[in-house]
TrEMBL record:
It comes from Rhizobium gallicum bv. gallicum R602sp. Residues 3-60 form the HTH lysR-type domain. It comes from the Bacteria. Keywords: DNA-binding, Transcription, Transcription regulation. This is LysR family transcriptional regulator protein.
Length: 302
């Protein structure tokens, strides 16, 4: 069996956008052509890829497997195409991103980029949100991957929404619940912190008392304090170490949390080829990373 890469690209684009009509528009195809491609994919796979989910469609177990392989196949195809066509790509790219992405996303992105463009040098800076925005607006960074605080830079692109979660120790219990009527001990990064603000706002709305039990300038300190049971913290599910875990909904009687937007900021509207290529790889990697925490559903409208 040899899968058609054009069909796989339509499949991946539709899942990324959550709507195959939008995928048809982006890829310059008619909706009927996209429907035919999806039918062809299921025929090639020999098993259903989609199942009904309310008013939309969700992936079957085979569909989840197919999507994972599809992304890998397309990445390899695109990497090969760019490497062949841009062998002499050179330059210097300055990339900034949040600590949450430093360990689990950055090595993959840098590896993909370096294999295709060994002559391009990259300076990566892992810092807090405020510094990322300041550096990209003043031209000290070419690209910045940051959580959204509603601040828009001149050239930014929203990637998606990531759920926020209450985080506790992986071993043992957090040692607090709403019934105790004791203030919730919070472990937090130093202010200003978007997630800390979201946590305290949610607790205040739920009339749950809280206290700052631990404050850290880095994620490493935050994970250590949370794992030791000094307090409950709030982050997204991205980049969590094994020593902590997301708490189940209502596990401790804690309120629900909103999602957090993720934005890619550029210092220039028309970046140089090296920066544009790194941005493309980064967008793909981030989309894959956040898709693991979101339901894989799409509109039935193909």
């Amino acid at each position: 069996m040899v899968f058609d890469l054009d069909v796989l690209r339509t499949f991946a684009t539709g899942m990324e956008l959550g709507n195959f009509a939008k995928a048809a528009d982006r890829l310059g195809r008619s909706t009927s052509a996209v429907s035919a491609q999806l039918k062809k994919l299921e025929e090639q796979a020999g098993t259903p890829i989609f199942r009904k989910a309310g008013r939309g469609l969700a992936l079957t177990e085979a569909g989840e497997t197919m999507l994972a392989y599809t992304r890998r196949l397309l990445d390899l195809n695109d990497e090969a195409a760019v490497a062949v066509q841009n062998v002499e790509l050179e330059g210097w790219v300055r990339l900034g991103l949040q600590e949450d992405f430093g360990e689990n996303l950055l090595p993959d992105v840098l590896g993909r980029f370096a294999r295709a463009h060994p002559k391009v040098r990259i300076e990566a800076r892992v810092v807090r949100n405020a510094e990322l925005l300041e550096r990209v607006t003043t031209g000290k960074l070419d690209l910045a991957l940051a959580w959204s605080d509603a601040t828009l830079t001149a050239h930014c692109e929203k990637i998606g929404e990531v759920p926020m979660r209450w985080i506790g120790p992986a071993a043992g219990e957090p040692g607090w619940n709403a019934a105790s009527r004791e203030p919730l001990p919070l472990a937090s990064l130093e202010a200003p912190c978007l997630l800390r603000t979201a946590a305290t706002n949610a607790l205040d709305r739920a009339n749950i008392a809280w206290r700052l039990a631990f404050v850290s300038p880095s994620l490493g300190g935050l994970w250590a304090a949370t794992a030791a049971g000094l307090g409950v913290t709030i982050r997204t599910p991205i980049g969590l170490p094994a020593k902590v875990r997301p708490l189940k909904p209502a596990e401790l009687g804690l309120p629900e949390l909103p999602s957090l937007g993720l934005v890619l900021h550029r210092s220039e509207a028309d970046p140089d080829p090296a920066t544009a290529r790194l941005a493309s790889i980064l967008l793909r990697a981030v989309s894959e990373a956040i898709s693991d925490f979101l339901p894989q559903r799409v509109s039935e409208n193909a």
